[in-house]
Every structure is written in C-alpha cells, then in structure tokens.
Amino acid sequence: MTALERNKEAVRRFKQCQGTTDQAAVMREILAPGYKRLRAGMANLAANAEGQNFPSPGNGLRAAFPDRVDVIEDVIAEGDRVGMIWRLQATHRGNLFGIPATGKRLDIWEIGIFRITDGKIATGWFMADEVGVLRQLGVNLPPRSDGRRVMPEPPATGEFAEEAVRILETAAPGVEQRNKIIVARSKTASPPPADRARHKLRQWGMQHMRDYAEANGVAHLEPMHAFPDRRDHITGLIGEDDRVWMLFNLRGTNTESFYGLPPTGCRVEMAEIGRIKFDGGRWTESWYYADGLGMLLQLDALHFIDAMPKVPFG
After folding, report:
1. Are residues 173 and 71 both part of a single domain?
2. 215 Cβ partners below 8 Å, 6+ apart?
3. Over the stretch 68-87, which tens digit does the pLDDT of each residue have?
C-alpha cells in the first residue's frame, strides 16, 4: 500500500468508525497527539446556538440524528492532505442547535479536508450543507436570546490566483501539476476560455440560492454580478490522477443585487470548494460547494431561506 493509500485509509476509518462500539479505539489509533478540528461541519449552526442552553446534539450529532448513516462518495489525496465527501443521511429525532425534533429525513453533503502526519490525522476541517439542513427540516436558523448573529471566520491563508499559478509553475511538471495550473487560472482576472471547453457544471456553489433564482427569473444576478470587485483567494489544491479539488474563499463587496437581494455594501468572505474532472487534458466537469449559510449571515439575509423552494424530504 502506498503512502497516499494509507492516508486515504486512515480518513476512511475516521468516518466509518463513528457511531460504532470501536470508535474510541480506532480514534486512538488514527488520530495524532494534539489532533485539532479546525472547523466543525455545522459551524454556523453551532456558533449561533452557543450559550442558548439548548440540549447538546451529542457526539457526531447522534442525539439529534440517532440513525445517522454517512455514505462516502469520493476521496482524493496528495502529499499530506486528504479530501473526502460523504452524504449524511438521518432522521431528525432530537434537538439540533435549538431546532426541536421534526421527524423529517435529512440527506445532505459534507466535506472534510484532513492533514496527515506520520500516518495519523493531525487536523480536520469540515463543512456541511447547513442551508440544506434548514431547507429539508423546513425551518430557519433559531434566533439567539441575545439577538446576535455570529459570522463565520474563513481561514487567513492562501494566495490570490495569479500568485498561486506562479508558484505552481515553478514545481516539477506533470499531468496533475498541469491540471492544477488550469484550475488555478480559472480564478485569475482573465482565465483562458479554452481551459473549460465543453465544461459541464454539475452543481453551483450556492445551489440552494441558485434554485430560488431560477424559480424567480433572477439567475442573471449571480455572484459575479453581485460582487463586481470579487477576487477569490485560493487556500489549497489537491490533485490526483484526472481530478483536482480547489479550496478557495470568495471575497468581494456586495454592491449589486444578489439573486434579487438588495445590495448591502457589505464586504464578505465565504469558503468554497470546487471538484474538477479532466479527460485527456480537457476540463470536462465541475461541482462546487460553498458556505451558503455563512454568506447569508454576512448579508443579514436569513429570510432568503424562507423564500427558497421547498425540498421534498420526509
């Protein structure tokens, strides 16, 4: 087994042991001393519930989702980093950060980005589809008793795309390196149009907001329109075979309408991940996934969730 395969196996075991009788023993084996969770999957829900005296949703949220099952969809690795995406499937049977049990079924994406040291997991960064949670449960974010809203804190790392491309071009050439350069170029001010010839977009980063926009004829008021000074920060690239995962922060000032929301003048920053596939050197497919709830918190636009098309789950 190669070092990359060992790293991926450690991350798979991290997810597969959760909720089992072997969890504690497996975690002792695969977690490095001082393991640090850099971000929780439902970080915005948790931060806005803090200090509100709500019952704990339990380890792995299992007090809220006792029948939780995580289905691993994809794993990618390069160097000391591993990315994994899974589907969290469960029934909402207990209090979830102030949301009383609804009895509804939940089926959402969650992503983890891990760093491995000497075969053990040193850090984990997670992001779950929190807007999807609220849509599928048919609720909005519960208000804090102090009236505050806690904003997300994107990582203070990374480079603007032009600098990321320059750094990538100094590394040893190869297919995976070439693919990463093409992906990083997509975030520059003038990306070459040929890079994404016959490209198919599988999912928008803020797909829930896009659903609303398409249902209401405002899809043209997308992020590039709403944040005209947008300049994204690339915080990581993971390449393996014909796949690249790009971690980046959308940065910009909301000076134009965003999918029908009036401009706020707010400076925002939101974490997003792109999963890109290549075929014979051509960028053929993309799938994006963003911190949509973090964006709505920064724009003071949680009411937008109530206007989104309902999701037919349970």
Report:
1. no
2. 309
3. 999 999 999 999 999 999 99
pTM above 0.85, yes or no: yes
Question: Domain for residue 313, yes or no?
Answer: no
Answer with the one of 80, 107, 137 that is the final residue of a domain. Answer: 137
Is there a single domain that holds both residue 69 and residue 113? yes
Which two tokens mark 55?
């019952």
For residue 206, give the CATH number of its domain.
3.10.450.50
Residue 154 domain flag: no
Q: Does 115 lie in the same domain as 81?
A: yes
The answer to whether the CB of 155 falls within 8 A of the CB of 249 is yes
Asked whether residue 77 falls in the same domain as residue 116, the answer is yes
Domain match, 282 and 222 both? yes
Query: 130-137 vs 207-215: helix axis angle to the nearest 10?
Result: 50
- Per the structure, the complete domain to which residue 11 belongs is given by 3-137
User: Is residue 88 included in any domain, yes or no?
Assistant: yes
Per-residue pLDDT tens over the stretch 263-288: 999 999 999 999 999 998 899 999 99
Which of 202, 150, 203, 204 has its CA nearest to residue 42?
A: 150
Residue 248 in domain: yes
Does 314 have pLDDT greater than 60?
Answer: no
Give pLDDT tens digits for 196-237: 767 899 999 999 999 999 999 999 999 999 999 999 999 999
169 to 173, 179, 185: CA distances (angstroms): 8, 11, 11
